[in-house]
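OP here, attaching both records as promised.
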Amino acid sequence: MTAKPLISFSKIAEEDLNFLDIDEWPDWQAQFGNSQPLKLEIGFGMGSFLIEMAAQEPRSNFIGMDFYHKGIRKVMTRKKKLQLENIRVAYGDVRIKIPLLFKDGELETVYINFPDPWPKKRHTKRRLIKPDFVKLIGQKLAPGGRIYLATDFEVYAMEMLEYFNSEPLFQNQGPGSGFLETREDLPKTKYEKNFINAGHKIYYLEFTRLGIATPTN
């Protein structure tokens, strides 16, 4: 069952150099052929948000990172069809790959849309957003950079809010250091549209990376 995706990814890597299954910094300026801002979407799913952002902002470079095989193949097909040269897809677990693929202060923007909430109590330790991960993102964002998050799961939303508000590297852009009611300036993901149509409340967060030194030890 595992051989088929590996063969498929090998073929994608051979045919499209914009697919990156790597474990070291790739020199992003060389990858894109320019020095435009780097923007990372973590866990892009089927890729609708990533594709729309790349189409809307041709002067930004977008990196999507995920390990969802079907979504990766779909993004690679769509980006090729739409001739979007400002997208790269990085394969792997973000907790492992982000420290390897990005230098400190290299990212301008990070997007995390509807990460798996792992709703069962015994699975909550699998959630992506934890204090160590928040600090990692803060290290990779440039001063003044931003991270945007969204979830429909209230318990997880409150955790995100607590962890980011507690991290000195970040400043909450929401009213009263809380949630934003909406975000009209970003495209809506497939999940987001479905949740809104179903009457679910969406919790939006936006944080700015402060221009303060990070600890070296």
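Record two, same layout:
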Amino acid sequence: MDIATILGLAITVSAVVTSFWMEGGSPGTVLLVAPMILVIGGAFGVAVVGGSFNTALRLPVYLKIAIRGRRFDSVATIDRIVYVAEMSRREGVLKLEKELGPYDEPLFLKAMHLVIDGVGAITLQEILETEIHCITLRHQRGIDFFNRVGGFSPTLGILGTVLALVHTLSSVTEPDRMAASIASAFIATLWGVGMANMVYLPIADKLKMRHEEEVAHLELITEGVLAIQSGETPRVIRRRLQAFLPPSIRDME
């Protein structure tokens, strides 16, 4: 569970609700079903038009990634690559298959099997780069979806406000009731702007951060496997891969 995601959302919602309450507002005035349906349902519907239905079906997966994510232990990965490099120099590349475990990173397993099969360095690099590129395309679909929802949400909120104002001005004849009806009409805009800036766009940013972390980890693996194939010494491989670590951790290695 990513505490930053939950804590950040809780702080944002608490700040908005508290300030609204301090100004004398009541939660019941903003929890209106009609504008919520228009803004949330409409924004997702328009986003599906610009994307794909399969992407929309994967929303639970994207939300899980944003909330929980996946931790990448770069130090442990470097240690694993260096260990395999030592085995490669000691026993030869063909003996490496018995050193590969089922719990290794899938890209690392795939790359090492290609090395064992004798795939050339250029071909190996192209295969791994293609793998990372395809992963990027899959991740980008989720990022783009939430960016689209975040972009359409305020517009749908304005549309809801306009529709409510049209209804209010055409049906309300009592001045006392008109003021309250006009105030309620702006609830749709509130929901549109609020959902975009407090939910959709932050989720898109979080998914982008998760993607960058994973790509950096996969690039570390790619660099390490290519170094193993080229026959570099384990010490040189470790020094090369330490460039992927923050300086504070790098100094401890």
